[in-house]
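TA notes, week 10

Several of you asked for a full example with nothing omitted. So below is the full record: structure tokens for the whole chain, then the designed sequence directly under it. When grading your own attempts, check the secondary structure regions first.
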């Protein structure tokens, strides 16, 4: 997902049987190591490949609106209506999820006093998208997963113009009690986009 490498760190340390090799980038830390009187050409190495291969949708289509149009109404999400149980473990383990809800609290001692609290929440759990009048968006689990997946690997990058929100850590894959793989979901999304575009081109050629 393009998040395997960074230069934004203060120091890098690699421990081995031979000792420690250190690269210090933060000037405030240099003083702690200067008295050692040793220098090293160590630079950290980053993971360059992963056994799990992931292709985000923008690898086959550079139009985020087209990607959203193709995937929003596609039946690929229907299988998750029964597989996903809406527990929210994928979002609570995600380093980039920040959804919250707001609750008003009153006190029994003085009902005229209270407070409004912002509480960590999840777009995958029941009730998160409920509205006044009994209305609610994304009642089905597959619809919630579609919203989350598009946000992580399409919508965020379309708005910010940088990287995808998903960093490819795999925590959601590890946490899901029903073994739903977000990596597989991303690849399915890309396959759907690729197949749809190919079918459109073939139809246009005819």
């Amino acid at each position: 997902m393009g998040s395997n490498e960074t230069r934004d760190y203060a120091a890098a340390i690699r421990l081995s049987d031979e000792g420690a090799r250190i690269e210090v980038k933060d000037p405030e830390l240099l003083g702690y190591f200067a008295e050692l009187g040793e220098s090293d050409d160590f630079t950290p190495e980053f993971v360059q490949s992963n056994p799990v291969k992931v292709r985000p949708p923008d690898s086959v289509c550079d139009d985020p609106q087209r990607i959203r149009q193709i995937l929003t109404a596609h039946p690929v999400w229907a299988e998750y209506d029964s597989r996903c149980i809406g527990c929210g473990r994928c979002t609570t383990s995600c380093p980039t999820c920040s959804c919250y809800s707001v609750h008003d609290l009153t006190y029994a001692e003085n009902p005229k006093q209270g407070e409004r609290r912002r509480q960590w929440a999840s777009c995958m759990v029941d009730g998160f998208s409920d509205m006044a009048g009994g209305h609610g968006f994304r009642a089905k689990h597959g619809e919630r997963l579609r919203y989350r997946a598009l946000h992580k690997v399409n919508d965020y990058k379309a708005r910010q113009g940088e990287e995808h929100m998903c960093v490819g850590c795999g925590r959601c894959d590890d946490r899901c009690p029903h073994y739903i793989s977000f990596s597989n979901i991303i690849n399915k999304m890309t396959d759907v986009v690729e197949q749809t575009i190919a079918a459109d081109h073939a139809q246009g050629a005819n």
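The chain has two domains: 1-49, 54-97+139-205. Use that as a sanity check on your answer.
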